[in-house]
């Protein structure tokens, strides 16, 4: 099955098929879990499906489905219940699986908040209950509505059933005029055992686990049945609310306890991230002795004002994360180490393993990342795995946690054979024989063959026709490989795609006569290719597969230049005056020197530039669209932030400006509308004064955007 393949080994066609299969499996699992309360797979296996789906999407972003499981919360509501539209969306949480994930989470929040790395963020931590999410609405202290999470936006009305749960008060005193209490309905282990004994005696359905029993009991059509079930409820959050409960998460939960709700007594407050990690280990050891199921720990930024600043992503809060308990591990043997070549020439080592089952999945490959990883070091030279290197024939411990791509956590040197030899990482490309060099500061060794390397050429062509690039219907990874090796209708570079019909007309061996083709399919392909001769600036730039220029970077560049011709003129001017053009290019907010150098080198005279020119000569390139945003004082204005911002980070400032329709630039010019200057503004502030550009303080900026 494709499912057992390492994601690094998947072809684009295999990845596309598997994403469809995964979406189907996850949808069925969601229905069984959320609607039917009868899950067929374990929570761990479900997590593996979700993470594998996300990892494939990460490697093949152009293949992400419009209805991807990554973008969904819960499941659709059952037709047996009336629908409830949540006033405040009930979101899911991002998952973490390792200590590094949590440390990175803490560092990421500090960067967003413009905090020094040495300053501590305060968090709350609580066990992640494995139950059913419930939202209970109180108006003037009276329970008026209770609903399940559903798909996050629309839930099921289970008000009468919720009223039968002893932990849920019908009336609360001194509460805000409007209060939605959110938490988890669950069933204790002892109560679950007694319920199943009663069910078995009565010849009724026996539940598979406490979560199953809790969900099935809450979603009964007859509240009398629900009342007979020993359901419990822990309150841990809130939704719509008319006034704030407290200044912090911890005090707000304490307030809910004062209102009469059960809150988890294991909830703790920590002054710094290291406390979370100790708490995680402590609760993990206690897990088996708890009377309810948990599958991890939830960490939340404690200060509610800070939570508000951090805000939300599409389906998850930026200020919270679920630290899931460790996944299963297994020992196996490395049979060989193979090198794969990517479109940017990166040499990626992969361990071929004696197949072993890890977390219910057969694993036969594991990523080895790069040569340092094989030799027992991280990217800054620190030992990993206690400095143990990895060799062919070694017995290694494999794990699958946050990353579905299996990794190696340990090596058993006691089983290493006497004639074992250290792995020698290749210094030449195994596909084309070109030198494989490693630049200073780069963890990856790369083939220098460029366009002459067949592995790179094929991968670049596959990228060129991928979903988020040219997306030519009928010309996928399999067809690219076929045409690349075709003697009559060869596609060796992108330009070859757009003259293939002309070459087919001149050729005695027609495409329509080939095996697997026909007149209709050949005609459809030519039509699809011709329909892509008009292309957007940003899409074209992304499709070229230039190193360090992803989809976001391509949009940044296109949004700055607007016209392809202006961008090309800038690249050409850089030949004669690299310094001036380089500085101009770096003024684009979000563009750094690494990407700038990569772009400049791609457009220097030579084979790569000639290949690009042959392509663009056959295309009509559309200007980057400029969207106007109305009802904002800063719509379509160019903003420059300079100096030390004390109330927000640069990332936060940029997000707030762009949300209101402004464009953020990295340098001051005559086109700049506003310069927001903090302490140490320096040369940018001086230039703004010289050009007569409006300068405001950070406090002025907040007044401006808050009173939009």
Describe this structure in words.
The protein has 708 residues and is of the alpha+beta class. The chain has six domains: 2-71, Helix hairpin bin (Helix Hairpins), CATH 1.10.287; 83-324, DNA ligase/mRNA capping enzyme (D-amino Acid Aminotransferase, Chain A, domain 1, 2-Layer Sandwich), CATH 3.30.470; 329-415, OB fold (Dihydrolipoamide Acetyltransferase, E2P) (Beta Barrel); 450-532, DNA polymerase, domain 1, CATH 1.10.150; 536-622, DNA polymerase, domain 1 (Orthogonal Bundle), CATH 1.10.150.20; 638-706, BRCT domain (Rossmann fold, 3-Layer(aba) Sandwich). 36% of the residues lie in helices and 19% in strands. The protein has 25 helices and 24 strands. The chain has a five-stranded mixed sheet. Strands 14-13-12-15-16 form a five-stranded antiparallel sheet. The chain starts with 11 loop residues before the first helix and ends with a helix.
């Amino acid at each position: 099955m494709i499912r057992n393949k390492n994601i690094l080994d998947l072809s684009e066609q295999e990845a596309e098929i598997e994403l469809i299969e995964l979406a189907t499996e996850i949808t069925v699992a969601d229905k069984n879990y959320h609607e039917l309360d009868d899950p067929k797979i374990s929570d761990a296996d479900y997590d593996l499906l979700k993470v594998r789906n996300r990892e494939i999407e990460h490697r093949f972003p152009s293949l992400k489905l419009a209805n991807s499981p990554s973008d969904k919360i819960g499941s659709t509501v059952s037709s047996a219940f009336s629908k409830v539209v949540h006033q405040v969306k009930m979101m899911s949480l991002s998952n973490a699986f390792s200590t590094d994930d949590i440390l990175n989470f803490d560092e990421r929040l500090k960067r967003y908040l413009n905090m020094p790395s040495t300053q501590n963020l305060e968090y709350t931590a609580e066990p992640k209950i494995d139950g059913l999410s419930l939202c209970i609405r109180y108006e003037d202290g009276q329970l008026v509505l209770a609903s399940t999470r559903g798909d996050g936006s629309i839930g099921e009305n289970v008000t009468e059933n919720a009223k039968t749960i002893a932990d849920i008060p019908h009336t609360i005193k001194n509460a805000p005029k409007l209060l939605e209490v959110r938490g988890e309905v669950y069933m204790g282990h002892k109560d679950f055992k007694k319920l199943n004994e009663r069910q078995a005696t009565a010849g009724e359905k026996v539940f598979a686990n406490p979560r199953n029993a809790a969900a099935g009991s809450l979603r009964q059509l007859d509240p009398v049945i629900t009342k007979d079930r020993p359901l419990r409820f822990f309150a841990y959050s809130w939704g719509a609310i008319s006034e704030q409960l407290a200044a912090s998460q911890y005090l707000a939960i304490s307030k809910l306890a004062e209102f009469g709700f059960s809150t988890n007594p294991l909830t703790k407050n920590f002054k710094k991230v290291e406390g979370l990690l100790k708490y995680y280990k402590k609760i993990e050891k206690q897990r088996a002795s708890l009377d309810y199921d948990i599958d991890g720990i939830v960490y939340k930024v404690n200060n509610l004002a800070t939570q508000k600043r951090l805000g939300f992503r599409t389906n998850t809060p930026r200020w919270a994360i679920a630290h899931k308990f460790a996944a299963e591990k297994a020992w196996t043997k490395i049979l060989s180490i193979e090198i794969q070549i990517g479109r940017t020439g990166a040499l990626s080592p992969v361990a071929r393993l004696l197949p072993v089952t890890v977390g219910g999945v057969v694993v036969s490959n594991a990523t080895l990342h790069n040569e340092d990883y094989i030799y027992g070091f991280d990217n800054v030279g620190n030992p990993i795995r206690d400095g143990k290197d990895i060799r062919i024939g070694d017995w290694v411990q494999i794990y699958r946690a946050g990353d579905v791509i299996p990794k190696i956590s340990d090596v058993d040197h006691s089983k290493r054979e006497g004639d074992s030899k250290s792995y020698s990482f290749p210094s030449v490309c195994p596909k084309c024989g070109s030198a494989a060099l490693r630049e200073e500061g780069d963890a990856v060794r790369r083939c220098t063959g460029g366009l002459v390397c067949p592995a790179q050429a094929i991968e670049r062509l596959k990228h060129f026709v991928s979903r988020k690039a040219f997306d030519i219907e009928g010309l996928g990874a399999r067809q690219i490989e076929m045409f690349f090796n075709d003697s009559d209708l060869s596609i060796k570079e992108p330009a070859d795609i757009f003259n293939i019909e002309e070459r087919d007309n001149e050729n005695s061996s027609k495409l329509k006569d080939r095996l697997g083709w026909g007149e209709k399919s050949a005609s459809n392909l030519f039509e699809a290719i011709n329909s892509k001769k008009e292309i957007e600036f940003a899409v074209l730039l992304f499709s070229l597969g230039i190193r360090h220029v992803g989809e976001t970077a391509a949009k940044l560049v296109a949004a700055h230049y607007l016209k392809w011709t202006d961008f090309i003129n800038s690249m050409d001017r850089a030949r004669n005056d690299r310094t001036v053009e380089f500085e101009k290019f770096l003024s684009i907010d979000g563009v750094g020197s690494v990407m700038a150098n990569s772009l400049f080198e791609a457009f220097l005279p030579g084979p790569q530039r000639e290949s690009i020119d042959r392509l663009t000569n056959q295309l009509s390139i559309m200007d980057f669209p400029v969207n106007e945003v109305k009802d904002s004082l800063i719509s379509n204005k160019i903003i420059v932030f300079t100096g030390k911002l004390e109330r927000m980070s640069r990332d936060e400032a940029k997000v707030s400006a762009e949300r209101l329709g402004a464009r953020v630039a990295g340098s001051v010019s005559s086109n700049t509308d506003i310069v927001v200057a903090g302490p140490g503004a320096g040369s940018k502030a001086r230039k703004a004064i010289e050009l007569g550009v409006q300068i405001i303080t950070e406090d002025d900026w907040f007044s401006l955007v808050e009173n939009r």
